[in-house]
């Protein structure tokens, strides 16, 4: 989850500092994907730790 969070922040910062163009869209897309990955991992983690296992 830490790596996903770091990647999410990194791509988000790149998107904010890049002028509007296709590359900025790419950075925004990548930040969004990393956010989605992090949320999925958090769901699995909490389901496993706080409910005694199982998703």
List the helices and strands and how they pair.
Elements: H1 2-17, H2 22-50
Give an overview of the whole structure.
The chain is mostly helical and 55 residues long. It has one domain (2-50). The protein has two helices and no strands. It has helices at residues 2-17, 22-50. Helix 1 (2-17) packs antiparallel against helix 2. The longest helix is centred in the middle third of the chain and has 29 residues, at 22-50. The model has no long low-confidence stretch (mean pLDDT 92).
Radius of gyration: 14 Å
Please tell me the total number of domains: 1
- Low-pLDDT parts are none
Number of strands: 0
Largest sheet: none
User: What is the average per-residue confidence, as pLDDT, rounded to a whole number?
Assistant: 92
> Approximately what portion of the residues adopt beta-strand conformation?
under 5%
Query: What level of helicity do the residues show?
Result: over 70%
Sum up the structure in keywords:
mainly alpha, 55 residues, 2 helices
What would you say about this model in short?
This protein is an all-alpha fold and 55 residues long. It has one domain (2-50).
């Amino acid at each position: 989850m830490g790596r996903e969070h770091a990647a999410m922040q990194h791509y988000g910062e790149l998107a904010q500092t890049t002028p509007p163009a296709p590359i900025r869209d790419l950075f925004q897309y990548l930040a969004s994907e990393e956010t989605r990955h992090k949320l999925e991992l958090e769901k699995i983690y909490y389901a496993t730790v706080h409910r005694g296992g199982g998703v």
